[in-house]
Specification:
The chain has 111 residues and is an all-alpha fold. 66% of the residues lie in helices and 0% in strands. Helix 1 packs antiparallel against helix 2 and helix 5 packs across helix 6. The longest helix has 15 residues. The protein is globular, with a radius of gyration of 14 Å.
């Protein structure tokens, strides 16, 4: 049994996404259907692009990496994160990444 570190899994995901090109959203959806189903049920106020941002954050990607995947700017990703926090009514003291990780900790794979 070959166990990979979280960093190695992230690199594999990145490589697969980059190799897949424009259809990376289908690949992401295939990788973690449970996450998408749960977040859609818990937070129906989030639109598809906001859910994608949440998924990238959940898997440990940084704003710069997310911007590359979405062919966007880092500032656009930061703005989207802010709007997500507002839609979820998070207190200013709550960090979005921490909130997502806590909300979906049952989906995290052991490192």
């Amino acid at each position: 049994l070959h166990v990979r570190s979280r960093r190695q899994r992230q690199m594999c995901i990145r490589e697969a996404i980059l190799a897949k090109g424009e259809s990376h959203l289908e690949l992401i959806n295939e990788l973690n259907v449970d996450f998408f189903a749960q977040i859609s049920d818990k937070y129906p106020q989030l639109n598809h692009s906001e859910i994608i941002i949440c998924y990238y954050l959940f898997t440990g990607f940084k704003n710069k990496e997310i911007a590359v995947f979405l062919n966007s700017t880092v500032r656009a990703v930061e703005s989207k994160r802010y709007r997500i926090s507002k839609k979820l009514n998070l207190p200013k003291s709550t960090v979005l990444i921490d909130f997502i990780n806590e909300s979906f900790k049952d989906l995290k794979k052991p490192q």
